[in-house]
Amino acid sequence: MSAEIVNLRQFRKKQARSEKEKQAEQNRISFGRTKAEKQLTRALNEKSDKAHHAGRIETDDDGA
Questions:
Q1: What does each C-alpha distance from 39 to 12, 26, 42, 48, 55 come to in angstroms?
Q2: What predicted TM-score, i.e. pTM, was given to this entire model?
């Protein structure tokens, strides 16, 4: 009939760590992107910028 002795300080720390880990997991799901995804987005943005600038009409602003 002996109960397990629990150190409350250690219990609170363990509980706080698990709560932080749950929050971190949620943040990884919500905000995390892989390096490959970031590179793909960057490449697509650069490609669209080049296409946009390639279609510009050059004008001479000599004031004539």
A1: 41, 23, 5, 14, 25
A2: 0.47
Residue in the block written with tokens 């390639």? 54
* Residue 41 to residue 5: CA distance in whole angstroms: 54
Q: Where are the alpha helices (DSSP H) in the chain?
A: 8-31, 35-54
Distance in angstroms (rounded) separating the CA atoms of residues 57 and 7: 74
In sign, the C-alpha dihedral spanning 13, 19, 21, 24 is negative
Does the pLDDT of residue 63 top 60, yes or no? no
